[in-house]
Amino acid sequence: MITVFSDEYYMRQAFKEAELALEADEIPIGAVVVCNDKIIARAHNQTEMLNDVTAHAEMLAITAAANALGAKYLDECTLYVTLEPCPMCAGALAHSHIGKVVYAADDPKNGFSKYGNMLHPKTKLVAGVMKNECLSLLTSFFKKKR
C-alpha cells in the first residue's frame, strides 16, 4: 500500500510527468519537487518542444521550485526524478543546495554517479524507488525509436 508523503507516492507523481513526456514524444523522464510535504513543482523533459538541450525535467523543476519559493536555495526540498540525473542536472542540484534527491532508475551511461558524488555535501540521496516501472517506460520508448 502506498502512503501519502512516502517516496513511492511522490515518485508516482514524477512518473505521471514522465508519461506526459512520452505523450509529447520526449524522452520519458519526469520530476517533482516537494517542500513541507507539498508538491511545489512538476516538470518533464521538453528538449524537443523547446529546442533546448538544457530543458531536462530536473532543470525545469528546479527553476519552477525556486520561483514557487521565491528563493534560489532548495535545502528544505526533495527532488523526485524517474532517472538518475546527468552531470548538468547534478551540478544545478548542487548549486541549489537541494536537501534530498530520490531517483528511480540508474543511468550507467549518462548518470552523474559515474563521476563521483556531484551533489551538495549535505544532500541526501536515495536510489531505486519504482526502478522497474521507470526503466520499463524508458526502455520501451527507445525500442520504438530504433
Structure explained in plain terms:
There is one protein chain. With 146 residues, the protein is α/β, with parallel strands linked by helices. Helices cover 40% and strands 21% of the residues. The chain has five helices and five strands, in the order H-E-E-H-H-E-H-E-E-H. Strands 2-1-3-4-5 form a five-stranded mixed beta sheet. Helix 1 (7-23) runs parallel beside helix 5 (131-145). The N and C termini lie far apart (36 Å). The model has no long low-confidence stretch (mean pLDDT 96).
Low-pLDDT residue intervals, each spanning 5 or more residues: none
Question: In DSSP terms, counting alpha (H) and pi (I) runs of 4 or more, how many helices?
Answer: 5
User: What structural class results from the helix and strand content?
Assistant: alpha/beta
Helical fraction: 40-55%
Ends distance: 36 Å
Rg over alpha carbons: 14 Å
Spatial strand order of the main sheet: 2-1-3-4-5
Q: How large is the share of residues in beta strands?
A: 15-25%
What topology emerges from the helices and strands here?
Layout: H1 7-23, E1 30-35, E2 38-44, H2 47-50, H3 57-69, E3 77-83, H4 87-96, E4 100-105, E5 124-127, H5 131-145
Parallel strand pairs: 3-4, 4-5
Antiparallel strand pairs: 1-2, 1-3
Helix pairs in contact: 1-5
